[in-house]
Every structure is written in C-alpha cells, then in structure tokens.
Amino acid sequence: MMSARAHRLGCTLLKCNFSYGTVRFQSASATPLARQLNAKIRVTGPLTVADYMKEVLVNPTAGYYPTKEAIGAKGDFVTSPEINQLFGEMIAVWILSEWQKVGAPKPMQLVEFGPGKGSLMSDILRVFKHFKIDGVSVHLVELSQKMRESQAKLLCSEATLGKNEEHQLQVVSGLTSTDYPISWHNHHSEVPRDAFSCIVAHEFFDALPVHKLRKTAEGWREILVDIDTESEDIKFRYILSREPTPISQLYKPKDCDTREDIEICPSAGALMQNLAQRFEEDGGFLLLADYGHDGDKTDTFRGFSNHQLHDPLLNPGTADLTADVDFGYLKRSVEGKALTFGPVTQEKFLNSLGIQVRLNILLQNDGLSAEQKAILKSGVEMMTDASKMGERFKFFSMFPNVLEEHLGKYPVLGFH
Ligand code: SAH
C-alpha cells in the first residue's frame, strides 16, 4: 500500500508553533478584500472579529482559501496529512475499527470537513479499497472552488466530473479513482441524511470564526474590527465595543473564570449540536484533530503567511487566519446530547493506533530507497514527537448517547 507520494513535507513550520516575537509586517497597499471590508465598515460599522475572520477566509472572490495556495511548502503552512501517508492510514484504521464495532452499518457516508488538498481522504480511501470496503459514498464539505479542484484532481478520474459550457471542471460529484461515488457540499447540512456518517475534520475547526471578548470594569465587552481613520492607507484596528453585544451577553464566561480575554466560536458549538442530533437520528461518529486547549487560553487568534506569523489585520485575504480550538467549549455544547472522548495528544493517539508498527513494516520494504525510508521515519517523528506536533495537536471524538454501554465495554480506540 505504499503510495508514490511517500513524502510531502516541504517545510517544518506549523500553524501551531508560534511566538509573537516573529510577526511579519507587510506593506500596506490595499488588497481587494481590504477594499471590500473598508467599504462595508464605512456603511455598516465595525465588524465582529468573527465576521472579519469569516470574510478573510472564505469570501468567494477575494478570501484566502478561495484564492491562495494555502497548504504545502509553496503555501503558508504544512499539515499532518501532507507529511506522509501513515497519518491517513491510521485515521482509516480508526474509522474502520469503530464502524465495525457498531456492526458495520451500510450504506456508510465517509464525510470530511475542509479536506484541503485531499491527501487525507486519498490515504483513507486507499485503505478502504485495500480492505474491499463497499457500500461507501464520499462527501467533502468544502467552500473553496480552488480547493475543490485540487481535491478532485487528486481523488477522481476527471472523466467522471461534470464540465460547464466553457469546458471548465464543475466539482460537484463524480467517482473516485478508487471507485467510490463522491460529492461536494458547501455546508454540513447538505450532506444527505438517513445514512450512517463517519466524519473526519482535520485542521477545520481552527478555521471557524471566533468572537473575542474582554473583561472590563463595566463587564464583558466584544472586541471589534474598525478602520483606522488616521491612516492614509486602508488600515484596520481593534476597538472595544462600548455597549454589550449579543455575543458578549450570551457567551460571557462564568464568574469563576479568571481570564481577562476569551475567544468563543459559536459556529463550532452549533456544528457539534447539529452533528449530535444527526448521530442520534441516523447513526455516526466524528473524529476531530486540531490544535487546541481545554478552555484556559486567552488570545490565540493569529495569521500565517509564507510559514511565518502574520498580523491578522494586515493585507486581509493574503494570509491564513486561525484560532486554537476550545475543546472544553465543544464538550459543553453537546453535554447530555452525545458522548465525547478526548482530547488526547496526537502522540498518544497515533502510537496507540500502531503507527510505529506500521512504520517498521514499511521500513522493511526493499522497494524503498534509504532516502525514502529516512523521510518516512522523520515524518513519523515529526507527527508524534511531543516537542514537534505530538503534544500540541489533539484528537477528540463524538458518538451518539445510545452507544454508551457498548463503548463502556469496547472503548473507543486511541482514547482510553
Ligand atoms: N484538512 C486539511 C486542510 C486544512 S485547511 C489538512 O489538514 O491538510 C482548512 C480547510 O477547510 C480548507 O480546505 C478550507 O478551504 C476549508 N474551509 C475553511 N473554512 C471552511 C468553511 N467554513 N466551510 C467549508 N470549508 C472550509
């Protein structure tokens, strides 16, 4: 099962490794998105940080993911699925193990949120094909047309994809080169109902928009993005809302929370609740992997450009924006509605799934050169070493309540 793409790592700087000492400031010439946001703020007033982040990341004409080469050595950051195939293989093993544990219900919908270049899904499907798993349809939730094209090129035989009148690729549905029906969706609610869903989300939740709140003498207030009117160029700045906003009223932390600044991601909470309901009605589970904390961090909103930290308010649309996932909040949003497990560290998760055993098998493959073997080895070390990605990246999962007794007897792989 060794793919030709044994090594994808071009650069070792990851989005989770940051120190504000290295923020890179760029020239102030206005980007197309800066002009759009400038006009919008002039008409409707300051934006919440969440509205700003959403526009920057997914605005269809000028946003980051729809227009930029985000992932890889030539992009702005590198992710685990791009490092080597073993990451996706371990995820495939986890999905198959949990799916078989509940009786291998068919049809199965294999769903990925924010699939990037499609590498993770490609590695998962290779394992599915190897084990001759049938009755599976693939569903990719992806807003960016540019990303959809990369995914389709990697995953599909082009002839099965639609073309418009100008013969441009229409990435809506087709057949993967591993022979599974595949379709793309803009939003998770478009993924068909009435079927068991195995959902994976790798570095997706950190791209969901966060609101920022600050504790003041008058109570919690929301941080907003405004135009700096003293600058001749288009320049953005943070301001503090004078009055409470709906978010600062609805989501203010409990009095016992000693933090002065918090980030809150209502769209992540809503997504978890929707999935909990889907799992209860149709069956399914979620595996989420991302960097994050358990509700104790304060200010993690940051930008990345060309593998360096980037001021989030500079040149919007040219850099990735991200915030650490608050696993504590995710757990609370589905309390009583679903079972959650984790977060556990990537080191623990991948090791308990047997990544080292799989690596040793590959290292005995005579068809691989010494260089390929060294690359595989360093890739696994990169993903599992606590000082690299092993500690900062976490795995988290969600199952329907009905499985409580079953999972008590047969614990979820990687989380016990
Ligand atoms: N999972 C991939 C890519 C992570 S980057 C990997 O780990 O390599 C984030 C991905 O989510 C990109 O594909 C981006 O286009 C997509 N994305 C970001 N926000 C989204 C949203 N609101 N809805 C759907 N897709 C989104």
Small ligands present = S-adenosyl-L-homocysteine
Radius of gyration from the alpha-carbon trace, in angstroms: 22 Å
Largest sheet, if any? Answer: 9 strands, mixed
**Average of the residue pLDDT scores:** 91
Contiguous runs where pLDDT drops below 50 for at least 5 residues: 1-13, 17-28
Tell the overall outline. globular
Helical coverage, percent range? 25-40%
Based on DSSP secondary structure assignment, what is the total number of beta strands?
19
Please report the number of helical segments. 15
The chain-level structural class is alpha/beta
Q: Percent of residues in beta strands?
A: 15-25%
Walk me through the structure:
- With 416 residues, this protein is of the alpha/beta class.
- Helices cover 34% and strands 23% of the residues.
- It has 15 helices and 19 strands.
- The protein has helices at 32-44, 49-58, 64-67, 80-83, 85-101, 119-130, 145-155, 246-250, 266-282, 327-333, 346-353, 355-363, 370-384, 386-390, 404-409, and strands spanning 47-48, 108-113, 136-141, 162-163, 169-170, 173-175, 181-185, 196-202, 211-216, 219-227, 236-240, 261-264, 284-293, 302-305, 308-310, 320-322, 325-326, 338-345, 393-400.
- Strands 2, 3, 6, 7, 8, 13, 17, 18 and 19 form a nine-stranded mixed sheet that branches. Strands 1, 9, 10, 11 and 12 form a five-stranded antiparallel sheet that branches. Strands 15-14-16 form a three-stranded antiparallel sheet.
- A hairpin with a 2-residue loop joins strand 9 and strand 10 (219-227).
- Helix 9 crosses helix 10 and helix 12 (355-363) runs antiparallel to helix 13 (370-384).
- The longest helix has 17 residues, at 85-101.
- The chain is globular and about 65 Å long.
- It starts with 31 loop residues before the first helix and ends in a 7-residue tail after the last helix.
- The structure holds S-adenosyl-L-homocysteine.
- S-adenosyl-L-homocysteine binds at residues 57-58, 65, 71, 79, 81-82, 114-116, 120, 141-144, 147, 202-204, 207.
